[in-house]
């Protein structure tokens, strides 16, 4: 028989595979039928290899609301490596502000022109139309707890912001955050959807609602 050399799935494996594909189709169907919100936190899953850890829904909402207030009417907000805050901001459709997301993960390119590919290793490799000091507030969450990563991300932040900075990073980075960005720790303690081993904090350089 000519088919003898073709590997065959066992009936059990084949049934399991078919069940997997069926569940996948059902999930996609539910997204469509429920008017799936592409901006909801978690709509793009975390990639731990990229050191991605999404905020809890409450934290993302709190930081997004803080950014709107800090930016003011008609304000511009930049989210640097902070996609879950960007997503929360986009859920507030109709509010009087604009926002963009600077992110290494190209999956976020689904957000169209508001997505800007960003690699912290090249902090000023930015599009020409991203003018210096053109954002009322910059929210940033550097992907790694290292001074090198913070220092390079700080270059981007200082290029983009008119002045206001909201930084989210580990508590162990307090000294370096003050050194590179002149920010101070807030009372507000951000939470993640999955618990992290490192204590996480927020830092600002302006009178915020996070104290």
UniProtKB/TrEMBL annotation:
It is found in: Cytoplasm. InterPro entries: DNA_methylase_N6_adenine_CS, Efm5/EEF1AKMT1, Mlase_EEF1AKMT1/ZCCHC4, SAM-dependent_MTases_sf. Coiled coil: none annotated. PANTHER family: EEF1A LYSINE METHYLTRANSFERASE 1. Pfam families: N6-adenineMlase. Signal peptide: none annotated. Keywords: Cytoplasm, Methyltransferase, Transferase. GO terms for molecular function: nucleic acid binding; protein-lysine N-methyltransferase activity. Its main location: cytoplasm. It comes from the Eukaryota. GO terms for cellular component: cytoplasm. It catalyses: L-lysyl-[protein] + 3 S-adenosyl-L-methionine = N(6),N(6),N(6)-trimethyl-L-lysyl-[protein] + 3 S-adenosyl-L-homocysteine + 3 H(+). The gene is Eef1akmt1. GO terms for biological process: methylation. This is EFMT1 methyltransferase.
């Amino acid at each position: 028989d000519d088919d003898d050399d073709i590997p065959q799935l066992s009936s059990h494996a084949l049934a399991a595979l078919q069940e997997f594909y069926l569940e996948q189709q059902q999930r996609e169907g539910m997204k469509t039928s429920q008017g799936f919100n592409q901006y909801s936190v978690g709509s793009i899953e975390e990639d731990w290899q990229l050191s991605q850890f999404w905020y809890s829904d409450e934290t993302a909402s709190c930081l997004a609301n803080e950014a709107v207030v800090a930016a003011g009417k008609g304000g511009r907000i930049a989210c640097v490596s902070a996609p879950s805050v960007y997503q929360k901001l986009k859920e507030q459709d109709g509010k009087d502000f604009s926002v963009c997301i600077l992110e290494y993960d190209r999956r976020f390119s689904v957000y169209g022109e508001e997505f800007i590919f960003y690699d912290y290793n090249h902090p000023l490799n930015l599009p020409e139309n991203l003018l210096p000091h053109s954002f009322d507030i910059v929210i940033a969450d550097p992907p790694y707890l290292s001074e090198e990563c913070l220092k390079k991300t700080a270059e981007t932040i200082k290029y983009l912001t008119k002045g206001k900075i909201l930084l989210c990073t580990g508590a162990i980075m307090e000294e370096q955050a003050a050194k590179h960005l002149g920010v101070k720790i807030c009372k507000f303690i951000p939470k993640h959807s999955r618990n992290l081993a490192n204590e996480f904090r927020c830092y600002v350089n302006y009178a915020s609602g996070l104290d």
